Amino acid sequence: MQKEIQIHISENQTITELSQLLTPYNAEVYLEKKDDSHVIEVNLKSFLGLITMRLQNGDNVIIRTEGTDAQESLKAVSDYLT
Q1: CA dist 11 to 27, 65, 77, Å?
Q2: Selecting from 3.10.20.740, 3.30.1340.10, 3.30.40.10, 3.30.465.10, what CATH number does the domain 2-81 have?
Q3: Out of 2-6, 22-26, 48-52, which region has the weakest mean confidence (pLDDT)?
Q4: How far is it, in rounded angstroms, from Cα 70 to Cα 66?
Q5: What is the Cα–Cα distance from 2 to 11, expressed in whole angstroms?
Q6: 8 A C-beta contact, residue 6 and residue 21
Q7: What is the pLDDT of residue 35?
Q8: Where are the domains of the chain?
Q9: CA dihedral in degrees (37, 73, 81, 12; nearest 10)?
Q10: Within 10 A of 43 (CB to CB), how many other CB atoms are there?
Q11: pLDDT at 19 > cutoff 90
Q12: How far are the Cα atoms of 21, 42, 68, 70 from residue 51, in angstroms, in the given order?
């Protein structure tokens, strides 16, 4: 499953929380961001991967999920980032 969203996060939201949010889900969750000349894709359960993305409000990203809890994890990430 996948969904394109625009990032709208508050100063209180952290990438640590985002990574921990996915712990209970049996799913692989990836975030894809197009940056000037290349595409960055990271596993959202990877804290270091999230740091390299340098997410900012207004960024357009694609959330992609695979696994038993794909739909639930997609909704959780989408709700957190918008």
Answers
A1: 27, 26, 17
A2: 3.30.1340.10
A3: 48-52
A4: 5
A5: 26
A6: no
A7: 79
A8: 2-81
A9: -120
A10: 14
A11: no
A12: 16, 10, 26, 23
* Rounded CA separation 3/61 (Å): 8
Q: Which amino acid is at 3?
A: K
- The reply to whether the predicted model has a pTM over 0.85 is yes
Q: What is the pLDDT of residues 28-82, one digit of tens each?
A: 999 999 878 889 999 988 888 888 888 889 999 999 999 999 999 999 999 999 9
Closest CA to 33 of 60, 3, 65: 60
Q: How many CB atoms lie within 10 A of CB 27?
A: 21
Residue where the block lists tokens 């969904």: 3
d(CA 29, CA 71): 10
